UniProtKB/TrEMBL annotation:
It comes from Aliiroseovarius halocynthiae. It comes from the Bacteria. Residues 2-92 form the DUF1330 domain. This is DUF1330 domain-containing protein. InterPro entries: Dimeric_a/b-barrel (IPR011008), DUF1330 (IPR010753).
Amino acid sequence: MPALWIAHVTVTDEESYGKYAKLAGPAVAKHGGKFIARGGRYVQLEGKDRPRNVVAKFESVEAAEACYHSPEYQEALSHARNASERELLIVETDE
């Protein structure tokens, strides 16, 4: 079943986060992920407001998790760790 990778982000260091974004896109694509939402318009109804919201679709939870743990994504993530506050989750979908 397909899965969505959902990230809610507050960027605290634009320069470093830019390095993350440059590397993360190719890592996601390499693992079959496709971005379906990236930082567009949103409405916060509950919880902590994070101004950047990203959704990528993968063929399965396992594919999304493999992407996260891949050397390519971990390299990208090394630039985001001290440049943002974020939550990231993977959720299986019906479609």
